[in-house]
Model the fold of this input.
Amino acid sequence: MATSKGKRKRSKAMIIMLLPALIVIFIMGWFMYWMGDQKRSDKIQHKPPQKDNVTIMPIVFEEPQEIKNA
Done:
């Protein structure tokens, strides 16, 4: 006689035991996300400089002048 394997059911006791742990993990994760989001607003906001402090100049690479006999 062949028996067919049906869909395996999970124990209700196992679900009841794991549910509080999953809820606690979710709450801790949400709390850490919320705390990290609060720190973003506390950052120091720098004022933009009144004057442009950047100077762009070309860099000239000079090669040493040597006389070579060919």
